[in-house]
C-alpha cells in the first residue's frame, strides 16, 4: 500500500507540474522550453508545500500537530495567496533561465547526440589536417600568402595529402585564374585523387537504398567492375530492362558524410584565416569557401546534374554533330544517375583518336564546336563550364559527344551582351570598348581609376594580339589587372572564360591548324550583331515601352492633381508612418506594454505600502486582512513585471524597411 501511495502521489505531482507549466507558458506569452518549465514546476511543488506550511504556522493558522485552527475561509484565502506567490516564483525562475540560457541555445538529447557525433568526426579530421599541415611545412607558406614563392607547392601538397574533398577543392581552385596567381593555379591543376573501386557490398546497398531493389533486379545487366572510379563516385555499364545501353553513376556510400564534415571544417578554417592573415581578407576566403561548399554539396545531388544535362542537351540541340547523352529520369535519384551510353573514345586520348577522320570532317567538327560554344555562352546563356578533352567523346558514328554536365554556367541576358562586347574588345584590340563593358558588367569599386584601368587593360590586350592560342595565361593576365583594381568576377563569368580556354585544347586536337582564338575573332562580330539585331532590340524595347506607357498613362492625372493643389494653395506633403498595418500593430503593442507596466508598478508600490502600514481587521493574531490584500497586489505587480520583462526579450521590433 505504501508503494501504491507513493506511485499515486508521484503521478499526481507530475500532472500538477505539467498543468502548472502550461499555465506558466500561457501567462508569459512567449515560447519557453517545455522541459525546463516542467522541471521548475516540479521543484516549486516539492519546495512550495513545506514552505507554505511553515508560513501558515507562523501566521497562527495552525500547526502540523493541531491542524487548521483558524477559520476555514481564512485558511483557504491564505493558501491561495501563498500558491500565487509560488507561481510568481516559478515565473521568475523561468525568466532568469531564459535570460541566462535562452530556449533553443542548448540542444535537446537528439540534437546533442548529433552534435557530439559531428564534433568527434571533426576532431578526428582536425587531428589529421593538423598533422598534414605541420609535417608538410605549409603553415609558413600560408602565413606569407599567394605572393610568396613557396605558396603554390605548399598548398598543392597540403590539399593532396588532406583527402579527396580537399583535392576536389584544389581542382576547382585551379580553374579560378581570376582569384589566384598563375603559378598557383598551374600547380593546383596537377592534383589527382587516387580512388579505389568501392566494394560490391557497398555498391549494392546504395542501389537498393535509392531504387528499392538490387541492381540485378532493376537492370537486365549490370557490370560490377566500374568503367571509372573517382573520389566521390564511380561509373558502371548496364543495360536497362527494355534493352538500352546505359551508364550508371553511383555515389560512394560515405561520400556525403565525408564531404559535409570537410566542408564544415573548410568554412571554419576560412574564418580563422581571415582573422589572422591580411591576404585572406583581401581574397574574401570566407565567401570563396562558402561558394566551394555549395558547389560540393550540389555535386552530391545527382538530380542537379541530371537537370543540367537535360538543359545542356536542349542548348546544343541545334547542332546535329553534337550529341548529349539522354538522362533516364525514372531511374535517376539523388545518389544515382542513369544516362544513355555513348560509344566512342575521349579526346583526352590524343591526336590518334581523330586520326581516322578526314581533314574536312575534322574542320567541320571544330567549326561546329566553336559555333556551339559561343552560341551557348553569349546567346542561350546555358553552357558547359568544364569542356576539357576528357569530357568530349568522338563517337563511333563520327560525332562529338559532350559529357559530364556537373558544372553548368548560367548567364542573364545583360551579362551575356556585355561579356560579348568585352571579348570583342579584347580580341579586336579595342581597350575602350573592353573597359566600358567591364565597368558595366562587373562589380567595380566606385573609387576605381578608370583611365589607369583602361591603360593597363590595353597593354594586356595588345600583348594578346600576338598570341596564336586562347590559353589560360591570356585570361590570367587580364584577371590580374582586375584583381589589382579590386574588381570581382562572378563565378559563372569566370566559368565562361574557363570554358573558352579549356575548349581551345579540344579545337586544336580536332584541327591542329585551327585555334579557338582565330575562330572567335571570325565569329564574334556576327554573334554581336545577332545580339544587337533590330528584331532582338525591338523585342526587348517592346517590353520596356509597355512599362513606360503604363507609367505615362498615369502621369497626366497626377500632374493635374499637383498643379491644381499648387494653384489653390492646398499642396501639402504628408507622411503616413502609421499607414501600414504592421506599424499600427507595433504601436498598439508598445502602448499596451506601457499601460501594463504602469499597472504593475502601481500594484507593487501599493502592496509595499499595505504590508508596511498593516492594520485592518485581524484574521489571526499575526495575520490581518490588509496583509492578504498586500500579498494579492504584490503578486499582481510581480506577475505583470515579469510578463513585461519577457516581452522585452521576445518582443518584435518595428518593421522599418519595406519595399
Q: What is the mean pLDDT?
A: 76
Q: Number of helical segments?
A: 24
Strand percentage, roughly?
A: 5-15%
Outline type: elongated
Radius of gyration: 37 Å
Strand count: 15
Largest sheet: 5 strands, antiparallel
Low-confidence stretches: 652-659
Which structural class should the secondary elements be placed in?
alpha+beta
Describe what you observe in this structure.
Strand 1 and strand 2 form a beta hairpin. This protein is α+β, with helices and mostly antiparallel strands. The chain starts with a helix and ends in a 9-residue tail after the last helix. Among the domains are: 111-195 and 258-295, no CATH class; 342-531, no CATH class; 534-562; 583-650. The protein is 64% helix and 8% strand. The protein has helices spanning 2-28, 34-58, 72-100, 109-136, 138-144, 151-161, 164-173, 182-188, 200-211, 215-218, 255-276, 278-283, 285-299, 302-315, 359-380, 413-427, 431-441, 450-464, 472-484, 491-510, 516-531, 534-568, 581-613, 625-650, and strands spanning 62-63, 67-68, 221-222, 228-229, 233-239, 245-251, 322-323, 336-340, 344-346, 382-384, 392-395, 400-402, 408-410, 618-620, 623-624. Strands 3, 4, 5, 6 and 8 form a 5-stranded antiparallel sheet that branches. A 4-stranded mixed sheet has the order 7-12-11-9. The radius of gyration is 37 Å and the shape is elongated. It is built from 24 helices and 15 strands. Residues 652-659 have low confidence and may be disordered.
Topology:
Blueprint: H1 2-28, H2 34-58, E1 62-63, E2 67-68, H3 72-100, H4 109-136, H5 138-144, H6 151-161, H7 164-173, H8 182-188, H9 200-211, H10 215-218, E3 221-222, E4 228-229, E5 233-239, E6 245-251, H11 255-276, H12 278-283, H13 285-299, H14 302-315, E7 322-323, E8 336-340, E9 344-346, H15 359-380, E10 382-384, E11 392-395, E12 400-402, E13 408-410, H16 413-427, H17 431-441, H18 450-464, H19 472-484, H20 491-510, H21 516-531, H22 534-568, H23 581-613, E14 618-620, E15 623-624, H24 625-650
Helix pairs in contact: 1-2, 2-3, 3-24, 4-11, 5-6, 6-7, 6-8, 11-13, 15-20, 15-21, 16-17, 16-21, 17-18, 18-19, 23-24
Amino acid at each position: 500500500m505504501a508503494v501504491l501511495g507513493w506511485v499515486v502521489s508521484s503521478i499526481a505531482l507530475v500532472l500538477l507540474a505539467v498543468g502548472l507549466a502550461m499555465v506558466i507558458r500561457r501567462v508569459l506569452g512567449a515560447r519557453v522550453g517545455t522541459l525546463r518549465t516542467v522541471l521548475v514546476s516540479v521543484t516549486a511543488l516539492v519546495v512550495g508545500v513545506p514552505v507554505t506550511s511553515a508560513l501558515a504556522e507562523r501566521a497562527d493558522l495552525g500547526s502540523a500537530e493541531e491542524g487548521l485552527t483558524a477559520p476555514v475561509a481564512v485558511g483557504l484565502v491564505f493558501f491561495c495567496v501563498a500558491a500565487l506567490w509560488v507561481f510568481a516564483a516559478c515565473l521568475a525562475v523561468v525568466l532568469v533561465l531564459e535570460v541566462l540560457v535562452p530556449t533553443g541555445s542548448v540542444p535537446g538529447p537528439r540534437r546533442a547526440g548529433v552534435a557530439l557525433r559531428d564534433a568527434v568526426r571533426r576532431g578526428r579530421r582536425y587531428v589529421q589536417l593538423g598533422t598534414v599541415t605541420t609535417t608538410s611545412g605549409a603553415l609558413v607558406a600560408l602565413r606569407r600568402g599567394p605572393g610568396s614563392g613557396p605558396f603554390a607547392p605548399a598548398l598543392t601538397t597540403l590539399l593532396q595529402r588532406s583527402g579527396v574533398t580537399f583535392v576536389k577543392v584544389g581542382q576547382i581552385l585551379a580553374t579560378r585564374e581570376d582569384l589566384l596567381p598563375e603559378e598557383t593555379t598551374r600547380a593546383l591543376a596537377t592534383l589527382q585523387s587516387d580512388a579505389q573501386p568501392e566494394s560490391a557490398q557497398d555498391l549494392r546497398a546504395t542501389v537498393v537504398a535509392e531504387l528499392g531493389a538490387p541492381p540485378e533486379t532493376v537492370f537486365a545487366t549490370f557490370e560490377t567492375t566500374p568503367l571509372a572510379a573517382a573520389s566521390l563516385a564511380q561509373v558502371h555499364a548496364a543495360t536497362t530492362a527494355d534493352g538500352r545501353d546505359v551508364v550508371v553513376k553511383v555515389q560512394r556510400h560515405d561520400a556525403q558524410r565525408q564531404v559535409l564534415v570537410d566542408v564544415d571544417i573548410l568554412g571554419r578554417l576560412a574564418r580563422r584565416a581571415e582573422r589572422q592573415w591580411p591576404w585572406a581578407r583581401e581574397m574574401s576566403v570566407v565567401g570563396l569557401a562558402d561558394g566551394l561548399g555549395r558547389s560540393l554539396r550540389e555535386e552530391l545531388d545527382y538530380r542537379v546534374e541530371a537537370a543540367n544535362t537535360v538543359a545542356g542537351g536542349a542548348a546544343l540541340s541545334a547542332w546535329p554533330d553534337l550529341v548529349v547523352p539522354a538522362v533516364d529520369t525514372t531511374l535517376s535519384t539523388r545518389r544515382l544517375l542513369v544516362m544513355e551510353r555513348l560509344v566512342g573514345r575521349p579526346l583526352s586520348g590524343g591526336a590518334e583518336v581523330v586520326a581516322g577522320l578526314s581533314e574536312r570532317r575534322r574542320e567541320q567538327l571544330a567549326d561546329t564546336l566553336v559555333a556551339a560554344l559561343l552560341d551557348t555562352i553569349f546567346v542561350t546563356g546555358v553552357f558547359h563550364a568544364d569542356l576539357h578533352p576528357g569530357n568530349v567523346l568522338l563517337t563511333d558514328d563520327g560525332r562529338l559527344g559532350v559529357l559530364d554536365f556537373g558544372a553548368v554556367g548560367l548567364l542573364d541576358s545583360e551579362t551575356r551582351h556585355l561579356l560579348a562586347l568585352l571579348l570583342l574588345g579584347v580580341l579586336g584590340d579595342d581597350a575602350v570598348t573592353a573597359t566600358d563593358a567591364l565597368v558595366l558588367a562587373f562589380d567595380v569599386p566606385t573609387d576605381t581609376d578608370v583611365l589607369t584601368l583602361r591603360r593597363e587593360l590595353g597593354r594586356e590586350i595588345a600583348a594578346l594580339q600576338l598570341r596564336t592560342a586562347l590559353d589560360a595565361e591570356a585570361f590570367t593576365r587580364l584577371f590580374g589587372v582586375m584583381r589589382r583594381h579590386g574588381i570581382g568576377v562572378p563565378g559563372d563569368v569566370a566559368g565562361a572564360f574557363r570554358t573558352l580556354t579549356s575548349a581551345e585544347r579540344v579545337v586544336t586536337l580536332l584541327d591542329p591548324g585551327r585555334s579557338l582564338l582565330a575562330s572567335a575573332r571570325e565569329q564574334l562580330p556576327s554573334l554581336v550583331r545577332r545580339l544587337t539585331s533590330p528584331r532582338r532590340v525591338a523585342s526587348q524595347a517592346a517590353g520596356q515601352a509597355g512599362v513606360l506607357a503604363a507609367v505615362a498613362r498615369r502621369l497626366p492625372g497626377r500632374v493635374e492633381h499637383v498643379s491644381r493643389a499648387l494653384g489653390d494653395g492646398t499642396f501639402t506633403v504628408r507622411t503616413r508612418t502609421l499607414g501600414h498595418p504592421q506599424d499600427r500593430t507595433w504601436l498598439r503593442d508598445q502602448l499596451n506594454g506601457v499601460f501594463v507596466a504602469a499597472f504593475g508598478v502601481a500594484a507593487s508600490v501599493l502592496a509595499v505600502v499595505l504590508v508596511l502600514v498593516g492594520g485592518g481587521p485581524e484574521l489571526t493574531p499575526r495575520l490581518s486582512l490588509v496583509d492578504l490584500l498586500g500579498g494579492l497586489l504584490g503578486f499582481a505587480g510581480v506577475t505583470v513585471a515579469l510578463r513585461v520583462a519577457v516581452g522585452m526579450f521576445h518582443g518584435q521590433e518595428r518593421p522599418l524597411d519595406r519595399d
